[in-house]
Every structure is written in C-alpha cells, then in structure tokens.
Specification:
The chain has about 350 residues and is of the alpha/beta class. Helices cover about 50% and strands about 10% of the residues. It has helices at about 5-10, 15-20, 35-45, 55-60, 65-80, 85-100, 110-115, 120-140, 155-165, 195-200, 215-225, 240-250, 260-265, 275-280, 300-310, 315-330, 335-350, and strands at about 25-30, 105-110, 145-150, 175-180, 205, 210, 230-235, 255, 285-290. Helix 9 packs parallel to helix 10 and helix 16 packs antiparallel against helix 17 (about 335-350). The protein is globular, with a radius of gyration of 19 Å. The mean pLDDT is about 95.
Length: about 350
C-alpha cells in the first residue's frame, strides 16, 4: 500500500503546484476541446457520423499520423455540432473542464463558418455561445472570450462569412475580442486574407492568426506584415530565423506555444527538441496553451508541467509563465490585475514556510 505523501513532499511536486495555480489560456479551440464523453454523446446524437461513440475507441481515433490527418479527424468532430443545443452543451462543458484546472480566463477559438454552413441559424449560434459564456462565469467562475477564426482551407468564401459574423452589429456577440486564421498552412498563404483582417481590426477586433506551425518563418512574417498579428498561434518555425526572433522580442509579440499539440501533429519531432527554449533565450514572450486538449491526450495543467521541465522552472518560474498569459490576453486591466494578484497570492502561500 502506498503511503500518503507528506505536506513537504506535495509541496515539492510541480504537478500539485500547477494544479492549483490560477491560469489563463489563449490558444484553445472550441470543438477541439470536446472531451471524450461529450464527443461520444454528440456522436450518439448523430448516428450517421463515423466518429466512435465508445469513449475508449476515441483514443485510437485521436491518434494522428500527420497534420493533414489531424485536420481530417478534427473536421469529423466539427460535423457533430449541428444544432444550437449542441453548441451550447459543448461550450458550457468545455468551461466546466477549464474550471477543474483552475483556469480563470480563456480566449476560446470558434469557427462559426463551420456551424452556419451546417445549417445553424446565425442568431441561434450567437445566442447559444453567449448563454453558455454567461452561465460559465456565473456558475463556474470561468471568464470566456471568443476568437472567431477563418478556416483557411475553406478559402475566401469562409473568410467573407467569418468577417460578416464577426462585424455585423446585429450579430456580433458581446464576448468577441479577436479574429484569427486556422486550418492547414500549406497552400493557404496568409496575405490573401489581408482585407479581412484589416476590416476586423477596423471593427475593434485583435489579430491572432496561426502561423509557422507546419510552414517556415515566412508565414510568420506574412502574418505580422499582412495580417498585423498581435500574437502568433504556434509560431514553431520562428526558431529558424534569428531576425524574426529578434523582431518578436523587440516588439513584445507573444507566441502561443502548445508543446504536446506540436508533437501530436508532427510539427515537432521530439519534445526535448521543442523550440520553446530558443524562444525564451531570445527574449520572446511565450504563453502556454493546450490547443485541442482531449484530442491530444493533454490539458493545460499537463502543458505547464511539460514547459516547466523543458525550461527548468521552479514554482516562481511557472507562476511567471502563468502571468505571461494574463498579460498577453485581451482581458480588461481590472481583470488582468485580479488574476495576477491571485497568482501571486497562491504562489506566496505555496512557498511560505
């Protein structure tokens, strides 16, 4: 029988520290955050889907051969979200999982084009996510904000529709803060979306495209120059370009780093070779994120533990990473101060003699 750990032993365990640490997450996808139980429930609702209903079988289903295969599987799960009730259920349950990890604030990336294309009414979609958002804050203590992203593989039609949904005064949800670009990078050049990002920025939204995950540094340069990115989703290949690293550091442009995701999609071949070390050494701000956590068999707590090991961080270093995410977020100043104070209070209490 294993003896219970002493208080001193627990305090030396970074996993225990991370579990209780108040956190913010900036790069996490709506459908990609569906837990196996929710995916199973949605698949059972829609029996024409090829997605398994068995929770254990989903583990094999979510084993990816490469990034293209990941996109194929991801889109099959997207197809399970077909009604406003599906949208509301998924959104609230994602927030519930976040609350269990002590995530206080999250900018959740949604792809409304996918839902509207499948026949969900524009207004019904917005009402579903907003109802879930308000309930999550009131009942779970999780503050959610939205990033509407263009599914790049669907081209300019999707970009036009996403922009419309994000900027129509009669539709734009209260929680929307940013405009993004996801999906495959290969064959989807960033510059073609410049007019859409210009219009979104003019409407008061912040620019947060994916770039440089499965392509080279030029994709990141394009996101910076053409899309006026304020943060970069992934940015894995930035380590290949010292001038780019210097630019990111000089202008304080954060990278939304998702270590386990990069391994699962084969963007990085080996975790110990992850470029997060180069990013930090170059002075680039980094935030830690889970991307599509259940699909990759991870969660934000695990991603912090991975980052702590790769960077050799103690508790104060881990807390500093958590504060990076708060600072890089689009939360209002009062909200940032509140979560930062929570992080500091928790850390000092943990380290007190």
């Amino acid at each position: 029988m294993t003896e219970p750990r002493t208080a001193a032993e627990q305090r030396r365990d970074p996993h225990a520290f991370i579990a209780g640490l108040p956190k913010a997450e900036l790069h996490v996808h709506h459908v990609g955050s569906a837990s196996p139980r929710i995916v199973s429930a949605l698949s059972a609702r829609h029996p024409d889907s090829k997605v398994p209903t068995d929770v254990e079988a989903l583990a094999d289903y979510f084993t990816f051969t490469d990034f293209a295969h990941f996109i194929q599987v991801y889109l099959s799960v997207v197809d399970l979200v077909r009604t406003p009730d599906d949208v509301r259920l998924l959104t609230y349950e994602v927030a519930r999982d976040m609350a269990r990890q002590n995530i206080r604030y999250a900018e959740l990336t949604l792809t409304p084009f996918s839902s509207v294309r499948r026949g969900i009414d524009d207004r019904a979609f917005m009402d579903a996510i907003e109802d879930a958002r308000k309930s999550a804050e009131d009942e779970l203590g999780v503050v959610l904000r939205w990033c509407f992203d263009i599914p790049g593989e669907a081209g300019l039609e999707a970009a036009d529709e996403t922009l419309r949904l994000a900027t129509d005064d009669k539709l734009r949800p209260e929680g929307l803060v940013s405009f993004g670009l996801g999906g495959p990078e290969v064959g989807v050049p960033r510059p073609q979306f410049k007019p859409h990002f210009d219009a979104a920025i003019a409407a008061g939204l912040r620019s947060v495209p994916h770039a440089g995950e499965t392509t080279g540094p030029q994709t990141i340069w394009d996101a910076l120059t053409d899309l006026r990115a304020e943060r970069i989703g992934h940015g894995t290949s930035a380590a290949q370009d010292p001038k780019l690293l210097a630019h990111l550091a000089e202008h304080g442009i954060p990278l939304e780093v998702c270590p386990t995701s990069n391994i699962a999609t084969r963007a990085v071949t080996d975790l110990d070779e992850h470029p997060i070390k180069e990013f930090v050494a170059a002075g680039v701000p980094v935030t830690i994120n889970s991307d599509d956590p259940p699909m990759f068999g991870t969660d934000l707590n695990n991603e912090y533990a991975v980052a702590a090991r790769l960077l050799g961080l103690d508790e104060r270093g881990i807390a500093a990473l958590a504060k990076n995410a708060v600072e890089a977020s689009f939360l209002d100043p009062a909200g940032k101060s509140r979560i930062t104070a929570e992080i500091d209070t928790y850390t000092e209490s943990w380290l007190a003699p």
